[in-house]
Amino acid sequence: MKTVDITEHKLFFRHIRIVYFSGHPKSRDEGNGMMIWERRMMASIENNQDEALQIRHMKVDLYESKKGRALRLRDDDNTYLIIFQRPNILETWHTRAQQVEKSSHVDASDEQLTLIPEQILSNEAQIQILNLRRNSLISRPPTEKSMAPIGYIDDLYRVHSLQVIDLSANQILSFPIQLTLLSHLRQLNLSSNYISLVPNECSNMRRLQFLNLSNNQLDSLPDSIRDLLNLQVLDISFNQFSQIPNCIHYLPLDMWRLAGNNIESIKSIAELTVEKIDLRRNVLSTSFRLEFTNVTHLDLRDNSMIATIHLTNLRFLKFWTLLSSCLFLITSRLYPCLSITFRTYPIGFQTAQTYLFYE
Length: 359
Prior knowledge:
Layout: E1 2-6, E2 16-21, E3 25-28, E4 35-37, E5 42-46, E6 49-53, E7 59-65, E8 68-74, E9 79-84, H1 87-102, E10 105-107, H2 118-122, E11 129-131, E12 164-166, E13 187-189, E14 210-212, E15 233-235, E16 256-257, E17 276-278, E18 287-289, E19 297-299, E20 308-310, E21 319-323, E22 338-344, E23 351-357
Parallel strand pairs: 1-9, 10-11, 11-12, 12-13, 13-14, 14-15, 16-17, 17-19, 18-20, 19-21, 21-22
Antiparallel strand pairs: 2-5, 3-4, 5-6, 7-8, 8-9, 22-23
InterPro entries: Leu-rich_rpt, Leu-rich_rpt_typical-subtyp, LRR_dom_sf, LRR_domain-containing
Keywords: Leucine-rich repeat, Repeat
Pfam families: LRR_1 (PF00560), LRR_8 (PF13855)
């Protein structure tokens, strides 16, 4: 067992001269002499040889040693006891070390990145949540012959532990097909890019629960998406769809997020369980009919061509939002607790009125 004794600024015990958090300092905590470092590890210098202790891979707790209360770091091979002169510094280090031990979240958003840093791709920290939004990252160009992992988005397949990835607002021109190799992936955000095609291989992401493809250039989805049986949220709003993709009829989605497309009508091709549909800012035809009986929430705002809406089959409808500037003919009997919100937009104002109808 190695015992290390730390003072507030220096460390003296046997051959070890100093212990510090490795990396570049970001800020200093006033009053206790500690620095906050970017890298999540501890390094000890002994006889001019560096030894890095990967705290993220060690168990951290407090230990009552013969020399007093100590911070104990353990891995499969060694145990380190770090003794501080001041109890409050011990508590601070203990808290920070626990945070490092449990942390598997990397936030590299808004860093003006054009390539993914090697520290992320090496995955020494077993990253589970990765935030890379609002950078300038790209997929591997088709003309790129070398497959060396130099930092393209495709290279993230090497980080096998990833469960959540946010790549929104980058410079992605095509769906990064290599991401479909990540077997643990649960959430993927590719919104606000320039993607025009989703590959069939996306069906390989069998654990995927959340997929955000909004604000891209899509006009279709492959039928293979219907194999994503765990998918609960699919956002394809603000794309270029002229009709509802067939595949989403077979998915257990909580809501159809279809706003901001070029959809003219909706046709049912399978029995549906979806209860909420967002069709804002489309080009729905003048006479609109929805054949889905289970719908409880329907948003039709900003569809200026609608003149007639038929509610014949919507016997469970509870909330309906639409523009009052249109002429409506309701051809069905209104059911209990149907809330219809009429929204108008005069210059400089936004008003809304809600009406409740009962049998």
